[in-house]
Design a protein that fits this description.
Layout (H helix, E strand, L loop, with lengths): L1 H18 L18 H17 L9 H12 L4 H7 L6 H10 L14 H9 L4 H8 L3 H15 L4 H29 L7 H5 L3
Helix pairs in contact: 2-3, 2-9, 3-4, 4-5, 7-8
């Protein structure tokens, strides 16, 4: 018990030194990104998105800040409706989906089509109208437009340089999290799983 209490006290002291606070609101294993926090990363992505919008390369009713939040939420595993809620309006889910696809943040569901994708590509390359193609594929015109957005985004290279910059920022975030988590684990091993309730016992 004495050894466990000493580890708790050491862990609490580390947290206090890092944050200036003696109150822990999450398990220590969730504290990460100290070297470069998520807000700083989101601001950097916002600047990239503002540049894209200002140049007219990308058009959407979402703001640069909302687009940065969309990207961060996507990488956190949020679906389009959850991302829309995060942006403050669930009705934005379709706008979020279109922006996400345009940014090449694809999901498996984007490619689950009830027909051969090559068949749709051939029809789109023909002189058929969208109405004729939707009837041929037995889907609604609106669904056809959504699938076409996916194909267009795959083929479009105009934003690739900007998207690579965004991925570099996201990779920096991942590296920061790995370094911070690894350093904490190396120092205290299993003690990083101590929760707020356990730490209160030593304060």
């Amino acid at each position: 018990m004495a050894e466990e209490k000493e580890k708790k006290e050491q862990l609490l002291q580390l947290f206090t030194n890092m944050t200036g606070s003696t109150t822990i609101v999450e398990p220590m294993k969730k504290i990460h990104g100290t070297l470069r926090d998520s807000d700083a990363i989101e601001r950097e992505i916002t600047l990239i998105m503002r540049e894209l919008l200002d140049r007219g390369i990308f058009k959407t009713k979402l703001s640069p800040t909302q687009l940065a939040q969309l990207i961060a939420a996507y990488h956190q595993g949020k679906n389009d409706t959850e991302i829309a809620r995060k942006l403050g309006d669930e009705k934005l889910s379709k706008t979020v989906a279109r922006a996400r696809v345009r940014l090449k943040l694809f999901r498996d569901l984007d490619f689950k089509m009830p027909f051969d994708p090559d068949r749709m590509r051939d029809l789109l390359a023909s002189e058929h109208t969208m109405k004729e193609i939707s009837e041929e594929l037995n889907i609604s015109p609106s669904t056809l437009r959504e699938y076409r957005h996916v194909f267009d985004a795959q083929a479009d290279k105009t934003m690739d340089a900007y998207l690579e910059r965004i991925m570099d920022v996201m990779e920096d975030r991942d590296l920061t999290e790995q370094m911070t988590t690894s350093a904490t684990r190396d120092a205290f091993g299993d003690s990083i799983d101590i929760t707020e309730a356990e730490l209160i016992d030593v304060t």
